[in-house]
Amino acid sequence: MSIILYSLCGAETARPFSPHCWKTVMALRHKGLDFVESPQAFTEIPKVEGGVSKIVPILKDGDTIVSDSFDIALYLEATYPDRPSLFGGEGGMVLSRFVESYGLTMLHMAVTKIAINDIHAMLGPVDQAYFRESREQRLGKPLEDFIATRDAEIAAFPEKFATLRHLLKRQAYLGGESPLFADYILFGALQWLRVTTGSIHLPSGDPVAGWFDRLLDLYDGHARKVA
């Protein structure tokens, strides 16, 4: 039985955009596992697999269902130990948790502020109503208010990658010569930005942009094929 990955999309199923789902897509490709991706609209997710989770990614592997991108990565590592490792050992798991925290605290809110109106435009009418209500409640202001600060957020965005940029001066990936799950965690944030806005908002020649391009080219350019 094929592995099924439930992910997030807007009105176009060919443009899944969740950063957490992209982590899982890259992890599955890294492991060399065959899977079927099933993109879902925001309001359809609670109906998936009997309502097992209100958020994606959701992975179904035979009779096993796992949600949360990091838990899925741990599951894949434990279940398919003969495939390429996502962590390179216990230490890599712990360090990936640090990278996850960095991404959530430093990048995700910035991407939200840059892309929020683009995401709203990608959605169907029912999801637009859900997205507007839930995000305005969470952020405390109308979506339109973020247009006024968008240019400032974009201008400040490259500096958030100063740590990664410093590391990439001496190695190709966070994982060293080849990527690990830690790379896919940060890749997910930039792929989210790329799919929703059409740009990663980093200058040409930036080492982080080069790292992102290398990841886009992996696995027969799977991630790059998403417009």
Automatic annotation (TrEMBL):
Coiled-coil boundaries: none
Cited Pfam families: GST_C_7, GST_N_3
InterPro entries per the UniProt record, alphabetical: Glutathione-S-Trfase_C_sf, Glutathione_S-Trfase_N, GST_UstS-like_C, Thioredoxin-like_sf
Gene3D superfamilies hit by this protein: 1.20.1050.10, Glutaredoxin
Residue ranges annotated for the GST N-terminal domain, each copy included: 8-84
Protein name per its UniProtKB record: Glutathione S-transferase
Organism: Rhizobium halophytocola
